[in-house]
Amino acid sequence: MFTNWFVNTPVCCPSRSTILSGRYQHNIRDSHYEGKPEGLCDKIGSTCGCMHINYTKPFFERHTIGHYLNNMGYSTAVIGKYLNPPGMQPFCDKHKAFNPAPPGWDLFYTMCNQAYYNVTWNRNGKLEYTGDQPRNYTTCLVGNTTIEFIKQSVDEGRPFFTYVAPRAPHLPSTPAPWYMDKFPHKTAPHTPNYNFTAPDMHWMIAQQPIITTKQAAAIDNEFRDRWRTLLSVDDMMKAIVDTLTELKELDNTYIFYTSDNGYNLGQFRLPSEKMNMYENDIRVPMAAFGPTVKPGTKMRALTGSVDLAPTFMQIAGQGAPATMDGASFLHMFPKATADTEEPMVEAQQQSSKWRSKYLIEYQSIGLLRARSHIVDCENNTYIGLRVVNSSMNWMYAEFYHLKDWQYQNPYFYELYDLAKDPYQKQNLYSSTPPATKHVLHSELHQLVHCKGAEQCS
Questions:
Q1: Which end of the chain lies in a sparser environment, N or C, as judged by fewer CB atoms within 10 Å?
Q2: What is this structure's pTM?
């Protein structure tokens, strides 16, 4: 289990693109500000990319982990959610008889529209439609397709890499019918920053109206449905592990389990969404299983989504390509020895040789409301440093207007000491010494313009 795992960008398409490419958002985004339509940036036909990600060939497609591993002889698959619209538009044109899959994937089975039922899929270039029957529940389809792919790869005697991406628990968080009634009394966690705001926070947070009783009930309903959808993910994971066991491949397989972003359920009066620089949004679970991973080990090193692709490359026996910004953490796993506390100690010692600052960056996708609350806007664009070392546990962020593409004119700052204030209720920026502010600003701007592991990690 990783205890300090973060996403680089807390929203779907950029975060998944970082996982697939091992590159920070600023190295795979559009080259310049292109404007946006009213509302969400990722509408079909938008000119601002897939939430500002440049998914065009060959800039992105020939630099994914699937492409690299496939060239090394791996059988590769991406199953489920690949990109958001319009990133899927080139693969989902219903007027074409064939929509070629991107290079590097032996199996490309991905959602054109992202839902739990009534989905159009691209299966290696051909469009398929699945309906609204229980057997069409998309988490089940993703799991069953994954199992079929693993069996085929083993039959062919090829090493395999599978990127498994169910919709769950994303909105509308539709549970499978057999789980509809689970958790009837569960409620969303009322953490100390639930329904909280403060005047020294970014204006979008400072102006948030109080969450009403009706809105709180809706948040609780959403929380329950999210849990219910994840029961199907549990079933899927168990079925995959059972298949690997039956095939006698479990002891030779690494499994990484994580998410592309965190979530708000009432924290800072944000009733539903992600996209902000707070722990609820950027810190996500990460668990690993594999031949060199001792069960129970806690990895405290500051790691994140940008490190996955380089780690996959090392597992395959190759160094990371120069385009990747992250670094492999495979060497940090303590060797599986006798049941002692040594693995946890070793993981801590290894982390001291690792980075102590992780880049967070987000460019707004436009004015967005959830339950009458503003949860994103153009000047909710920010870059930040998540700092974790033996003496510091900080989050520092600078806010910009979306059009300020090169981050030249910050208009607001936030700084939190999470060792003393884990729920980020007190912005310390105004009381921080100028010298410290200068160091944070300089280190942040080095990272936000970095390219390649030597500069970025």
A1: N
A2: 0.94
